[in-house]
Amino acid sequence: MSHLGPVDEPDKRTLRRAFLAARNGLTPDDVREAAEALAARALGLPEVAGARTVAAYVSVGAEPGTPALLDALCARGVRVLLPALLPDNDLDWGEYTGEDSLARVRHGGRMELYEPAGERLGPDAVTRADVVLLPGVAVDGRGLRLGRGGGSYDRVLARLEAAGARPALLVLLYDREVVARVPAQPHDRPVDAVVTPSGVRRFR
């Protein structure tokens, strides 16, 4: 019997709390400067430069910022898909066409999220993306990502695999969130690259 799941979970929770606490210590200027650098790095990637559809997300709080990147993609004529959280923690998708296409949504007692205000395209819409930006709190030297713990993006990755879709998987992080190793489970799937304010690291 495998012990990978439950044994790893307390380690993941402890690590996640530590990374989120460090983010909460950042100033608004820190967050803004990092977001500008992240947008410039991401837009320079060949995968992003050649993408027709990018599945992304709207950063909240001290998360590595995405709004500048989303607007730059739209200005290039890229179709940008954003997630909408479903009651079972799965993700539906809608199109982002600018700040006025967002709605602030509170899910239970959790933080408010910015979600697409328009038509819902269904959970499978992500399988048509050329690039998928995944949120996370850390990534390790194998390209394995430590997420926020809700499991939503595990479902996204499983859906991509089931559909035979092979988009570029990118995660946006602060420099200090690229670490030697994070706890992993057998179903964890590596990302292709991590983008930080100071550079890009590829894993495959």
Automatic annotation (TrEMBL):
Catalyses which reaction(s): (6S)-5-formyl-5,6,7,8-tetrahydrofolate + ATP = (6R)-5,10-methenyltetrahydrofolate + ADP + phosphate
Organism domain of life: Bacteria
Catalytic EC class: ligase
A molecular function (GO) term: 5-formyltetrahydrofolate cyclo-ligase activity
InterPro entries: FTHF_cligase, FTHF_cligase-like_sf, NagB/RpiA_transferase-like
Pfam family, one: 5-FTHF_cyc-lig
Cofactors named for this entry: Mg(2+)
Gene3D superfamilies, A to Z: NagB/RpiA/CoA transferase-like
Keywords: ATP-binding, Ligase, Magnesium, Metal-binding, Nucleotide-binding
Record bears the keyword ATP-binding: yes
Protein EC: 6.3.3.2
Family: Belongs to the 5-formyltetrahydrofolate cyclo-ligase family.
PANTHER family: 5-FORMYLTETRAHYDROFOLATE CYCLO-LIGASE (PTHR23407:SF1), ATPASE INHIBITOR/5-FORMYLTETRAHYDROFOLATE CYCLO-LIGASE (PTHR23407)
The name this protein goes by in its record: 5-formyltetrahydrofolate cyclo-ligase
